[in-house]
Write a structure and sequence with these properties.
Layout: H1 6-13, H2 23-32, E1 41-48, E2 60-64, E3 75-78, H3 81-89, E4 94-96, H4 98-105, E5 113-116, H5 121-124, H6 128-131, H7 149-157, E6 160-164, E7 170-177, H8 182-198, E8 209-216, E9 222-224
Parallel strand pairs: 3-4, 3-5
Antiparallel strand pairs: 1-7, 1-8, 2-6, 8-9
Helix pairs in contact: 2-8
Protein backbone atom coordinates (compact mmCIF):
# COMPACT_ATOMS: atom_id res chain seq x y z
CA UNK A 1 0.00 0.00 0.00
CA UNK A 2 1.40 3.39 -1.03
CA UNK A 3 2.33 5.75 1.77
CA UNK A 4 0.10 8.82 2.01
CA UNK A 5 1.09 11.87 4.00
CA UNK A 6 -1.41 13.46 6.39
CA UNK A 7 -1.69 16.37 3.95
CA UNK A 8 -2.44 14.05 1.01
CA UNK A 9 -5.14 12.27 3.00
CA UNK A 10 -6.73 15.60 3.95
CA UNK A 11 -6.72 16.70 0.30
CA UNK A 12 -8.21 13.39 -0.82
CA UNK A 13 -11.10 13.87 1.59
CA UNK A 14 -12.07 17.11 -0.18
CA UNK A 15 -12.73 15.18 -3.39
CA UNK A 16 -15.78 12.99 -3.98
CA UNK A 17 -14.04 10.18 -5.87
CA UNK A 18 -17.29 8.89 -7.38
CA UNK A 19 -18.62 12.23 -8.62
CA UNK A 20 -18.20 13.17 -12.26
CA UNK A 21 -17.21 16.78 -12.77
CA UNK A 22 -17.39 19.10 -15.74
CA UNK A 23 -14.00 19.85 -17.30
CA UNK A 24 -13.73 23.40 -15.97
CA UNK A 25 -14.86 22.34 -12.49
CA UNK A 26 -12.34 19.49 -12.48
CA UNK A 27 -9.51 21.84 -13.51
CA UNK A 28 -10.47 24.29 -10.73
CA UNK A 29 -10.49 21.47 -8.13
CA UNK A 30 -7.14 20.09 -9.25
CA UNK A 31 -5.55 23.56 -9.22
CA UNK A 32 -6.95 24.22 -5.73
CA UNK A 33 -5.47 20.96 -4.45
CA UNK A 34 -2.01 21.53 -5.97
CA UNK A 35 -0.46 22.89 -2.78
CA UNK A 36 3.05 21.41 -2.93
CA UNK A 37 6.08 23.68 -2.59
CA UNK A 38 6.89 23.21 -6.27
CA UNK A 39 4.88 23.97 -9.41
CA UNK A 40 3.03 20.68 -9.84
CA UNK A 41 2.33 19.18 -13.26
CA UNK A 42 -1.35 18.80 -14.13
CA UNK A 43 -1.83 15.31 -15.53
CA UNK A 44 -4.59 13.90 -17.70
CA UNK A 45 -5.45 10.18 -17.74
CA UNK A 46 -7.65 8.79 -20.51
CA UNK A 47 -8.97 5.25 -20.14
CA UNK A 48 -9.72 3.98 -23.65
CA UNK A 49 -11.71 1.04 -24.93
CA UNK A 50 -8.74 -0.52 -26.70
CA UNK A 51 -6.33 -3.42 -26.21
CA UNK A 52 -2.93 -2.14 -27.40
CA UNK A 53 -1.60 -5.70 -27.70
CA UNK A 54 -3.46 -5.72 -31.04
CA UNK A 55 -1.85 -3.65 -33.79
CA UNK A 56 -5.23 -2.31 -34.98
CA UNK A 57 -5.96 -0.96 -31.47
CA UNK A 58 -2.74 0.99 -30.85
CA UNK A 59 -3.22 4.70 -30.14
CA UNK A 60 -0.15 6.87 -30.59
CA UNK A 61 0.59 10.30 -31.93
CA UNK A 62 1.83 13.82 -31.29
CA UNK A 63 -0.03 17.01 -30.53
CA UNK A 64 1.08 20.57 -29.93
CA UNK A 65 -0.40 21.94 -26.73
CA UNK A 66 -1.37 25.53 -27.64
CA UNK A 67 -0.32 26.92 -24.24
CA UNK A 68 2.90 24.89 -23.96
CA UNK A 69 3.84 22.31 -21.33
CA UNK A 70 5.61 24.48 -18.78
CA UNK A 71 8.54 22.08 -18.99
CA UNK A 72 11.98 22.55 -20.48
CA UNK A 73 12.37 19.81 -23.10
CA UNK A 74 15.89 18.66 -23.95
CA UNK A 75 16.16 17.65 -27.61
CA UNK A 76 18.78 15.32 -29.07
CA UNK A 77 19.35 15.21 -32.83
CA UNK A 78 21.21 12.66 -34.97
CA UNK A 79 22.38 14.58 -38.04
CA UNK A 80 25.47 15.51 -40.04
CA UNK A 81 26.75 18.58 -41.86
CA UNK A 82 24.25 21.28 -42.72
CA UNK A 83 21.42 19.43 -40.98
CA UNK A 84 23.43 19.28 -37.77
CA UNK A 85 24.01 23.04 -38.00
CA UNK A 86 20.29 23.57 -38.68
CA UNK A 87 19.41 21.57 -35.56
CA UNK A 88 21.85 23.57 -33.42
CA UNK A 89 20.49 26.87 -34.76
CA UNK A 90 16.94 25.74 -33.84
CA UNK A 91 18.00 25.14 -30.23
CA UNK A 92 18.80 21.41 -30.06
CA UNK A 93 20.60 20.51 -26.84
CA UNK A 94 22.70 17.60 -28.18
CA UNK A 95 23.64 17.07 -31.83
CA UNK A 96 25.90 14.40 -33.31
CA UNK A 97 26.34 11.21 -35.33
CA UNK A 98 28.75 8.39 -34.41
CA UNK A 99 30.00 10.46 -31.47
CA UNK A 100 26.45 10.77 -30.08
CA UNK A 101 25.87 7.05 -30.73
CA UNK A 102 28.85 6.20 -28.50
CA UNK A 103 27.63 8.53 -25.73
CA UNK A 104 24.15 6.97 -25.73
CA UNK A 105 25.56 3.43 -25.90
CA UNK A 106 27.57 4.33 -22.82
CA UNK A 107 24.32 4.97 -20.96
CA UNK A 108 24.37 8.76 -21.06
CA UNK A 109 21.07 10.07 -22.43
CA UNK A 110 20.82 13.83 -22.06
CA UNK A 111 17.61 14.44 -23.99
CA UNK A 112 13.84 13.98 -23.58
CA UNK A 113 13.03 13.85 -27.30
CA UNK A 114 15.12 12.30 -30.06
CA UNK A 115 15.03 13.46 -33.68
CA UNK A 116 16.97 12.06 -36.65
CA UNK A 117 17.38 12.78 -40.34
CA UNK A 118 16.31 9.83 -42.53
CA UNK A 119 19.90 9.04 -43.58
CA UNK A 120 20.86 8.54 -39.92
CA UNK A 121 18.35 5.79 -39.18
CA UNK A 122 20.80 3.01 -40.04
CA UNK A 123 22.99 4.34 -37.25
CA UNK A 124 20.15 5.12 -34.83
CA UNK A 125 18.65 1.66 -35.40
CA UNK A 126 21.59 0.22 -33.46
CA UNK A 127 20.27 2.06 -30.40
CA UNK A 128 16.85 0.37 -30.49
CA UNK A 129 17.42 -1.56 -27.26
CA UNK A 130 18.49 1.61 -25.46
CA UNK A 131 16.06 4.19 -26.87
CA UNK A 132 13.06 1.90 -27.51
CA UNK A 133 12.18 1.07 -23.89
CA UNK A 134 12.40 4.77 -23.00
CA UNK A 135 10.03 5.76 -25.81
CA UNK A 136 12.78 7.81 -27.44
CA UNK A 137 13.22 5.95 -30.74
CA UNK A 138 12.71 8.37 -33.66
CA UNK A 139 9.63 7.51 -35.72
CA UNK A 140 8.52 8.94 -39.10
CA UNK A 141 4.83 8.79 -38.04
CA UNK A 142 5.60 11.04 -35.08
CA UNK A 143 7.58 13.51 -37.13
CA UNK A 144 10.85 12.65 -35.36
CA UNK A 145 12.46 11.14 -38.47
CA UNK A 146 12.52 14.09 -40.84
CA UNK A 147 14.80 16.13 -43.09
CA UNK A 148 13.22 19.26 -41.55
CA UNK A 149 15.16 18.98 -38.30
CA UNK A 150 14.95 22.69 -37.51
CA UNK A 151 11.13 22.64 -37.55
CA UNK A 152 11.05 19.40 -35.55
CA UNK A 153 13.33 20.84 -32.86
CA UNK A 154 11.22 24.00 -32.56
CA UNK A 155 8.02 21.92 -32.32
CA UNK A 156 9.50 19.73 -29.57
CA UNK A 157 10.61 22.81 -27.66
CA UNK A 158 7.35 24.66 -28.25
CA UNK A 159 4.78 22.43 -26.55
CA UNK A 160 4.57 19.33 -28.72
CA UNK A 161 3.90 16.18 -26.70
CA UNK A 162 3.79 12.52 -27.62
CA UNK A 163 0.96 10.35 -26.38
CA UNK A 164 0.87 6.57 -26.38
CA UNK A 165 -1.61 4.11 -24.91
CA UNK A 166 -0.16 1.84 -22.21
CA UNK A 167 -0.86 -1.88 -21.70
CA UNK A 168 -3.93 -1.21 -19.56
CA UNK A 169 -5.49 0.96 -22.28
CA UNK A 170 -4.63 4.25 -20.55
CA UNK A 171 -2.93 7.37 -21.90
CA UNK A 172 -1.14 9.57 -19.36
CA UNK A 173 0.10 13.02 -20.31
CA UNK A 174 0.90 16.32 -18.66
CA UNK A 175 -1.18 19.26 -19.90
CA UNK A 176 0.65 22.07 -18.10
CA UNK A 177 1.53 23.33 -14.65
CA UNK A 178 -0.59 24.25 -11.63
CA UNK A 179 0.53 27.87 -12.11
CA UNK A 180 -1.13 27.99 -15.56
CA UNK A 181 -4.40 29.96 -15.79
CA UNK A 182 -7.43 27.64 -15.84
CA UNK A 183 -8.27 28.69 -19.42
CA UNK A 184 -4.79 27.66 -20.60
CA UNK A 185 -5.16 24.23 -19.00
CA UNK A 186 -8.58 23.91 -20.65
CA UNK A 187 -7.12 24.78 -24.06
CA UNK A 188 -4.40 22.14 -23.62
CA UNK A 189 -6.95 19.59 -22.31
CA UNK A 190 -9.15 20.13 -25.38
CA UNK A 191 -6.19 19.85 -27.78
CA UNK A 192 -4.97 16.56 -26.31
CA UNK A 193 -8.41 14.95 -26.02
CA UNK A 194 -9.28 16.03 -29.57
CA UNK A 195 -6.04 14.51 -30.90
CA UNK A 196 -6.68 11.21 -29.09
CA UNK A 197 -10.25 11.05 -30.41
CA UNK A 198 -8.98 11.69 -33.97
CA UNK A 199 -6.48 8.85 -33.43
CA UNK A 200 -9.27 6.32 -32.74
CA UNK A 201 -8.00 3.05 -34.25
CA UNK A 202 -10.01 0.87 -36.62
CA UNK A 203 -10.07 -2.01 -34.11
CA UNK A 204 -11.65 -0.03 -31.25
CA UNK A 205 -15.03 -1.49 -30.31
CA UNK A 206 -17.82 0.05 -28.24
CA UNK A 207 -17.27 3.23 -26.23
CA UNK A 208 -13.84 4.66 -27.02
CA UNK A 209 -13.20 7.20 -24.23
CA UNK A 210 -14.39 5.33 -21.14
CA UNK A 211 -12.97 7.37 -18.27
CA UNK A 212 -11.16 10.66 -17.86
CA UNK A 213 -9.36 11.89 -14.75
CA UNK A 214 -7.27 14.93 -13.89
CA UNK A 215 -4.75 15.21 -11.08
CA UNK A 216 -1.70 17.19 -10.02
CA UNK A 217 1.68 15.63 -9.22
CA UNK A 218 0.87 15.31 -5.52
CA UNK A 219 -2.90 15.80 -5.47
CA UNK A 220 -5.88 13.42 -5.62
CA UNK A 221 -7.53 12.42 -8.89
CA UNK A 222 -10.73 14.12 -10.06
CA UNK A 223 -13.10 12.28 -12.40
CA UNK A 224 -14.30 14.13 -15.49
CA UNK A 225 -17.70 13.56 -17.10
CA UNK A 226 -16.95 11.98 -20.51
CA UNK A 227 -20.32 13.29 -21.77
CA UNK A 228 -18.57 16.68 -22.10
CA UNK A 229 -16.13 15.19 -24.59
CA UNK A 230 -17.63 15.27 -28.06
CA UNK A 231 -17.56 12.10 -30.17
CA UNK A 232 -16.16 10.02 -27.31
Amino acid sequence: MAFQSKKAKTLAQTIDRDKLHGVDEAIALVKANATAKFDETIELALNLGVDPRHADQMVRGVVTLPKGTGKTVRVGVFARGDKAEEAKAAGADVVGAEDLLEIVQGGKIEFDRCIATPDMMGLVGRLGKVLGPKGLMPNPKLGTVTPNVGEAVKAAKGGQVEYRVEKAGIIHSGIGKASFPAEDLRANFDALVDAVIKSKPSGAKGKYVRKIALSSSMGPGVKVDTAEVAAA
